[in-house]
Amino acid sequence: MLDLGCGLGLLAHTLREAGIDLPYRGVDIDAAKIAHAQRIAARAGLRDVAFEAMDLGRTLPEHRGSVALLDVLQYVDTPAQVRILDAACAMVAPGGRLFIRSGLATPGWRPRVSKAFDTLAAHAGWMYSPPKRYPDEALFRDRLDAAGLRYEIAPLNGNSPFNNWRIVAER
After folding, report:
1. Which residues make beta-bridge pairs with 164?
2. CA 48/CA 152 separation, integer angstroms
3. Smallest Cα–Cα separation from 101: which of 38, 168, 54?
4. How far apart are the first and last CA of the chain?
């Protein structure tokens, strides 16, 4: 499993807690979060996990298998969104999946709440930078269709005020 924009590596812990013991690699632009993720994983005794600082807007890792892309795309410009999404799609091996959680550029009050929270999180130091642009659904459909992936796009907002969407794609 490759976790693009892994932050503190919470997905690695979640996978292990669920009994999913596949190799995990997390990359994130924030070197301090990566160092913290390494310490936490070592303290928790997580096996077969690796973390690396990497600016996804400039460099993408090589990988074949399943990919997670959780709350990343709004922090890069549109050309980088396309590059990251295309690269993630190309990494999905037969039987693998691409898991995406993202805000979408949609009308309404939820996108404004999401942007305000993401901006506040950046100012508080929780996120590396404020959001640049939320992708729209057409971008996902165009890139996933071009990659020949089957996919489902569904809202995740539930009773929350946020504009989160779940996209799961497979070959």
Report:
1. 103
2. 30
3. 168
4. 15
